[in-house]
Design goal:
Elements: E1 8-10, E2 15-17, E3 25-31, E4 33-40, E5 43-51, E6 55-56, H1 58-63, E7 70-73, E8 77-83, H2 84-92, H3 96-113, H4 119-126, H5 129-157, E9 161-170, E10 176-187, E11 191-193, H6 199-205, H7 208-226, E12 236-240, H8 251-261, E13 269-274, H9 282-294, E14 298-304, H10 310-316, E15 321-324, H11 326-329, H12 336-351, E16 355-359, H13 364-372, E17 377-379, E18 387-388, H14 389-394
Parallel strand pairs: 10-12, 12-13, 13-14, 14-15, 15-16, 16-17
Antiparallel strand pairs: 1-8, 2-7, 3-6, 3-8, 4-5, 4-7, 9-10, 9-17, 9-18, 10-11
Length: 395
C-alpha cells in the first residue's frame, strides 16, 4: 500500500517482487529491512540483506529484464519507488559511451549470475524488437565516439593535425591585419576532417586540452613565417580557447611557456573564447583571463550574439575584441532584425573602446554596409578561405 507521501509500505514477511516479475521499478529503503532470495525448486536462499538507505532492484530497471530473484521484507518497511521512466530520462541525457558501459557491465553480470545460459540469448528473447534496435543504435554511437577519441589521441602522436589560417582584414582596403588559426585533421582513411566533426568530442572527453595546446604551440611556431603576409603595423594571430581549457589552472603557465619557447610577442597573440567558455566556473575563468591579459595578450569574444549573456561577459571580463557571429552578418541586408543587431553591437563595442570583427562576410555589399556602420575588421570568404601555411607560401 501507499502512504500519503507516495511511499510504499510493506508489513514483515511480504514480498515486494518475485523472480520472473517485470523489473519496472527500483526501491530506496527509507525505513525497515529486506532480504533478497534465490529460489531453487522449493528452497529459498538469502543472498543479500538491505537496510535503511540502501537501494535494490536497480539492475532490471536499467536493462529491462525480468527479476532474477525475490525481495521480501523482514520487518515493517517503507520504500521510495524509483520508476523506470525517471531512470530512462536520466540515461538519455548521459553520454552514449557511459550508457554502453552500463549495458556491457549488466550483460556480463547476467552471464555471471546465469553461467549455464547465454546472457545475450536471454536478452534477445526477453527484450522487444524496439529495445534491441535502440540497443544496437546505442552501441553504434558509443563505438563511433570511442573510435574518434582513439583517433584523436593517435593523430596527436602521428602529426595528423594541421592548422589552416583565415585572414582577418581591414574593411576599408582589404589589407590583412591578422589570421585566425583553425585546426584540420588529415585522417589516414577518411581524408580531411573539419573541426566541427571532432572538436565536440574532444571537449567532452577532455582531449581538447591537448588539442588546444597543440594548436597554440603550432600557431606560435608558424607565426614568424605567416606574419610576413600581413599588411599591418600591429599584426596578430588568433587562437581559440575551449571551455575545458579555461577550467585548467595550468593554462596561464602553459601559455607563458609556449610564448617563451617560440619568442612570441605577447601583444601579437589574441585568444578567442565563446560565450559558453565562462559559464561553468565563472570565478576561475575571470581569474585566468585577467592573468592572460597580464601576460600581454588580448581577448576576443567570438560568436557574439549567439549566447544569452554576451553583455554580461563584456562587462565582467577583460574583452578587447568583439566578433559578431556570421548568423547575423550573412542576412543583415535582407533582415531588419539582423541589421539592427549588427548596428547596435558595433555601436556598443565602439563606445566601449573594443575592436569589432564581422564574421562570415561573403559579398562586397555586406562589406560596404559594415563599413558604413563603423566596423573596422572583417573575416569571411570574401577576403579568403582558411588555407595552410604551405599554401600561403606557394602563392
Amino acid at each position: 500500500m501507499f502512504d500519503a507521501l507516495g511511499r510504499e509500505v510493506f508489513n514483515a514477511g511480504e514480498y515486494i517482487f518475485r523472480a520472473g516479475d517485470e523489473g519496472d521499478c527500483a526501491y530506496l529503503i527509507e525505513d525497515g529491512a529486506i532480504e533478497i532470495l534465490l529460489t531453487e525448486q522449493t528452497d529459498s536462499q538469502r543472498v543479500a540483506l538491505f537496510k535503511k538507505g540502501d537501494m535494490f532492484g536497480e539492475i532490471t530497471l536499467i536493462d529491462c529484464q525480468p527479476r532474477t530473484a525475490s525481495a521480501r521484507t523482514i520487518e515493517k518497511t517503507v520504500l521510495i519507488p524509483i520508476q523506470r521512466k525517471l531512470v530512462e530520462n536520466l540515461l538519455e541525457k548521459c553520454d552514449p559511451i557511459l550508457r554502453q558501459l552500463f549495458v556491457v557491465i549488466l550483460e556480463r553480470f547476467r552471464n555471471t549470475q546465469n553461467p549455464k545460459k547465454d546472457c545475450l540469448s536471454i536478452s534477445k528473447q526477453a527484450a522487444s524488437e524496439a529495445q534491441q534496435a535502440k540497443k544496437k543504435a546505442l552501441k553504434g554511437e558509443a563505438t563511433q565516439k570511442l573510435s574518434i577519441a582513439h583517433g584523436i589521441t593517435r593523430a596527436l602522436l602521428h602529426e595528423e593535425f594541421e592548422l589552416f589560417y583565415q585572414p582577418i582584414c581591414r574593411l576599408t582596403n582589404g589589407s590583412v591585419a591578422g589570421y585566425e588559426a583553425l585546426i584540420r585533421w588529415h585522417h589516414p582513411t577518411d581524408g580531411l576532417i573539419p573541426p566541427m566533426d571532432f572538436l565536440w568530442l574532444a571537449e567532452q572527453t577532455g582531449l581538447i586540452r591537448e588539442l588546444g595546446m597543440w594548436t597554440l604551440e603550432r600557431a606560435c611556431k608558424d607565426w614568424p613565417r605567416l606574419k610576413k603576409f600581413t599588411q599591418c603595423n600591429k599584426p596578430f594571430i588568433s587562437v581559440n580557447l575551449s571551455p575545458n581549457q579555461l577550467t585548467s589552472e595550468d593554462l596561464v603557465s602553459d601559455v607563458r611557456n609556449v610564448m617563451s619557447k617560440y619568442a612570441m610577442p605577447p601583444a601579437e597573440l589574441k585568444l578567442e573564447l565563446t560565450e559558453t567558455v565562462v559559464v561553468e566556473r565563472p570565478e576561475l575563468a575571470i581569474l585566468i583571463l585577467n592573468q592572460l591579459v597580464e601576460l600581454g595578450s588580448s581577448l576576443a569574444l567570438d560568436d557574439y550574439g549567439t549566447g544569452h549573456s554576451g553583455l554580461e561577459h563584456i562587462q565582467r571580463y577583460p574583452i578587447g575584441t568583439l566578433k559578431i557571429d556570421r548568423a547575423f552578418i550573412a542576412p543583415m541586408l535582407a533582415s531588419t532584425q539582423s541589421f539592427e543587431i549588427v548596428r547596435s553591437s558595433i555601436g556598443m563595442a565602439r563606445s566601449l573602446g573594443l575592436n569589432v570583427v564581422a564574421e562570415g562576410i561573403e559579398t562586397e555589399s555586406v562589406r560596404d554596409a559594415l563599413m558604413k556602420l563603423g566596423c573596422e575588421f572583417g573575416q569571411g570568404w570574401y577576403f579568403g578561405k582558411p588555407i595552410s601555411l604551405a599554401d600561403y607560401e606557394s602563392t
